[in-house]
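The records we work with from here on pair a chain with its fold. These numbers are not coordinates but entries in a learned vocabulary of local backbone shapes. To see the layout at work, look at the sequence and tokens printed below.
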Amino acid sequence: MDIKTYFDDGANWQAQAVLAYVRAYSSWALDGTWDDDAKKYMATLDVGRFENCREQGYIFSVRYKTSQMNYAVYEHRNSDNISVVRFECNTMNTPTNDMVFEHMADKYDTTKDFVYGNIVACGEWLVKDMNNFVRSLI
């Protein structure tokens, strides 16, 4: 298969790299919620697509107990930085663009930004913030 089209789901390469990082360290994000009897983490980490014109990425949703924290991750179309919009709302499926935009004053109102190519720093921040969220509910 041609490398240029492998894993071509429409998301930007930076968002794809962050997805790979978060996937690799997902157990760290959910740490503290392991149930020995059930043999699983009681918190869940799901991912869906974020599609906003030229801004293509993912939305991660961490659910624990009755709470849900969401993270839209994408390459910002004006700066090429990796942008993260963090917001809390409960959904059954991936939050919609409208839900993301409800938590932004304008297109520059992001929770956190990382310079172009700084995949590891973004992934580390996400995993740590996700874990802080679930631990705040324990």
